[in-house]
Amino acid sequence: MEELNVIGRNAKKAAGELANLNTEQKNKILLLVADLLEKYSDGILEENARDLEQGHEMGLKGAIVDRLTLSGERISGIADGLREIVQLEDPIGEIEEMKKRPNGLLIGKKRVPLGVVGVIYESRPNVTADVAGLCIKTGNVCMLRGGKEAFRSNNAIVKVFHEAIEACGLDPHMVQLVQNTTRESAVAMMKLNQYLDILIPRGGAGLIQAVVQNSTVPVIETGVGNCHVYVDDAADLEKAVSIVYNAKTHRPGVCNAAESLLVHEKVAALVLPDIGRALSEGGVEIRGDQITCKLIPEAKPATEEDWGTEYLDLLISSRVVGSVEEAVDHINQYGTMHSESIITENYSHAQYFLDRVDAAAVYVNASTRFTDGFEFGYGAEIGISTQKLHARGPMGLKELTTNKYVIYGSGQIR
């Protein structure tokens, strides 16, 4: 696809310039972008309104519409996120170690940009700014391929980046948006090895699996979150109700929202009615096993499919288990290695859960909603990796870098 080849060539050309900017230059771009986002907020919202109108015509609803929707407050939040990135330490150029060999060679490990980062994502215009901001801070050029449902919003945000970069006298091709939003452009991007150094999918399970299975570019798998909250027999039950409610209802359409509830059989009769009442008042449909349905009259019977489903909606599955070991086994079987939480006052149970659950983020007595770049103190994130190479969990600045060995000699030969 010729458009992608043009973008790729421009990206490679811009990569050398961006990689060699100093921290002050990169921060200047980001601060200007933040100011311009707020200055042009009305225009961005007009474009977003057009996307939303088209989305309603396409039949979009629920979580997808929530992710697509911008507001003045959300744009200010995006701008503040960029300002927060400015305050973070720049990892580029950091020498992590320097060792002197017996032959006198000094061998060090230096942190450098990945190069050209490609991101394929759906219906999230905030991702456009987050990714571009993180990439600029880490000296990476980004090639963005958003979904058609957010095309106008994404374009408006990228234009702000272009204006800021050009105002600094630099190549605007440091941030590029693929204009073709067809499936063919996504497939072509997966094969763009000559230009892309890494590809990151952000979206639903279908998109992520399509990229993982078909890409010849190295991929970081992100985002699918069948997250669990387990209420232990040693739980503070008042705390449990609050955490489950927050984890499910705060923003049900995001990947760190709880999709599954596990409750120990010894406290099920004590806590499930209260949890059920709170969730029902929050508009949540509960799909439970036999005991859950007995204790929560509003619950509907769960199927095997429910245990492994990421709803991204006001739905939750619920199951009663006999032990922390059974809870961990269930999570490791049906979870997606994203975020898992135990509610307990028993130290041994907490440590067992932390040690045995295979996930990027494992919590004790806290909502899964905290798995987020801002909440972890990294600024915006480029995604939440659910794999083990090259990064795991919220991907901040350091995760967008790699190493280069630098060697100082004084005439040594081998």
Write out key terms for the chains shown.
15 helices, seven-stranded parallel beta sheet, 414 residues, globular, alpha/beta, 16 strands, four-stranded parallel beta sheet
What can you see in these coordinates?
By secondary structure, this protein is α/β, with parallel strands linked by helices. The chain has helices at residues 2-19, 23-39, 41-58, 63-68, 72-87, 125-137, 151-167, 183-189, 205-214, 237-249, 268-281, 290-295, 304-307, 324-334, 347-356; strands spanning 95-100, 106-113, 116-121, 141-145, 175-177, 198-202, 227-231, 258-264, 285-288, 300-301, 315-321, 339-343, 361-364, 384-385, 393-394, 401-408. A seven-stranded parallel β-sheet has the order 10-9-11-8-7-12-13, with helices on both faces. The protein has a four-stranded parallel β-sheet with strand order 5-4-3-6, sandwiched between helices. The chain is globular, with a radius of gyration of 23 Å.
Q: Give Rg in angstroms.
A: 23 Å
Instruction: Order the strands across the largest sheet as they lie in space.
Output: 10-9-11-8-7-12-13
- Sheet of most strands: 7 strands, parallel
Summarize model confidence as the mean pLDDT.
95
Poorly predicted sequence stretches spanning 5 or more consecutive residues: none
Percent of residues in helices:
40-55%
How far apart the termini lie comes to 47 Å
Shape: globular
Number of strands: 16
- Number of H- or I-type helical stretches: 15
* Residues in β-strands, percent: 15-25%
Question: Structural class from helices and strands?
Answer: alpha/beta
